[in-house]
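User: Fold this one for me? It's Carboxymuconolactone decarboxylase family protein.
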Amino acid sequence: MPLVTPLSADHDSETRKLAEFFNETLGFCPNSVLTMQHRPAISKAFINLNKAVMANEGRVTSALKRMIAWVSSNSTGCRYCQAHAIRAAERYGAEQEQLDNIWEYRTHPAFSDAERAALDFSLQASQVPNNVDESIKKRLYDHWDEGEIVEMLGVISLFGYLNRWNDSMGTSIEDGAVESGEKYLEKNGWETGKHG
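Assistant: Here's what I get for Carboxymuconolactone decarboxylase family protein.
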């Protein structure tokens, strides 16, 4: 049972219109956004931030951004966001071999050195205390420009917010996200946990 009950998707017309963005990324409006509607200024600001962070302005693809989100969410243990991130990665064209082997991104040949640098950045930036150091910085600069690094940290930071929101709320996970979690993550111990 979630901490706060999500409101109807029709509760706030501005949020409903902005939330159409999620129909593309996930195929549904997330319960997290429906909970944020208790204060519509939060739901609207969140959706606009999400759209800005997920916009592609460099070589960081939509699929890689969602894999960055997955690594961050896996690091913090938010099962709700893990399932959402892997679902969005699939919908945005991540390679099947990457989806099947996301847990082994550090060693699996489906991932390039540039992707590994981005995903390791996500892992280290999601730790408390933060573990981004000169080694991570060097690896990032070997493959990415400063604007692309800003895009990556935008994703990591956005999911830091979402991981805290959804784990604290115990947000109920939607069927589509459960399906993706079971398909790609269950073999390594993923379950809905408090989000079921």
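One thing worth pointing out: The mean pLDDT is 96.
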